[in-house]
Amino acid sequence: MIALSLSQCARPLQAELYGEDVSFSAVSTDTRNLAAGDLFVALKGPRFDGHAYLQQARERGAVAAMVSDAPATGMPSLLLQDTRVGLGRLAALWRERSAVPLIGVTGSNGKTTVKEMIAAILGQRHRVLATRGNLNNNIGLPLTLLRLQAHDCAVVEMGANHSGEIGYLSRIAQPDVALLINAGRAHLEGFGSLRGVAEAKCEIIDGLKPGGCFIFNNDDPWAPLWRRRAAGLRTLGFGCGEGAEIRSPAQSLHLHWREGCFFSRFQVVTPAGENEIELALAGAHNRMNALAAIAAAQQLGAGWEEIRAGLAAIRPVPGRLQPLAGQVGCGVIDDSYNANPDSVVAAVDVLASAPGRRYLVLGELREMGAGGGDLYRELGEYAHRSGIEGLLTLGDPVATAAAAFGTGGEHYATLDALLERLAGLLQAGDQVLVKGSRAAAMERVVKSLTGEVV
Which of 23, 98, 185, 194 could bridge across to 5 with cysteines, CB 3.0–4.6 Å? Predict the structure, then answer.
């Protein structure tokens, strides 16, 4: 078990110790799930201040607190300037106490899916610590690492919307394997350009342990940049093209629809041999996700038996290309959790492979940058070329996509108007894909189509 005393933390955290030198083996930032014996970290944000809950934390059994305002009354404290920074330093210290191999995962699209794939593969034989949901920022990643105890290995996501963030998280996590899935048109406002995205994602190697392995998408247009950036490191590429060490020949992918679900089957060729993989997930992008997961898991010793069993157990993450049954006998593909232009293209490809009449319901995409109008136009044109029957959009910025789609493109200013149109449009056997950024809350459309209360 990993446990630390306050005196062991004070110097690395650049904190002052007040009160008794107690020890703790778990950390909490939320009194609602705090357990007796925890260290409580009082975080501050624009709309909250954990210092207001210090007394409650003490009453619930916290043995000490990390604070930035003043030492906690009646409770041992670590006082420092910024508790969010302190949380990161504590997580790095915790990670240093653990010798378990750790895989760090980043990319514009697919992080959560790939993380779940890796955890499923390694979980066939090992106790795996994995990021819960998509808690991949400068709070979520430290809290994930602070759960490290009797684990055999770990896989953690690293997300960002500005340059420098991935490097910061990587230095905290100190990965043995750094996995870069792709660089796409996500968070363009924060990164400034697609090149900015590509450079920021490659920051995952900043904390790579000596002798560690950098795995990247060899098919990505930015692969040459990543190879140069990783000069001198041990590297491994995955993809469908020649030159990738972990490869799936492009023509080997077969998609089929069975029992209301999408399935993908494809060949994988690696230095350790080749095998056929089947996924209960659709799309060429999920083949790439699987290749990334295989490459990373093999670095931790996974064999084909674990790889096949782990990937066979994977099902769509809720809100990410999840097939559901609609009220009128239509199929609903729930991809409402989040969106950027590249993930919309991937989702449209999946929709186009489905049987029946096919409709895309698209909400607003956020952080598109100055070229947002052109990107919406591209998406509308792409959806039209894919052969789907209709595109219905919600929210003023997305109207450009509906116009670019042409006949069959319809724009709605309100959710009620959109839902009324869908109620009169959809029939048994139709397929409707629902997608949009998290802020667009397109799950409201999914709930209406599947009979849940909106």
Answer: 23
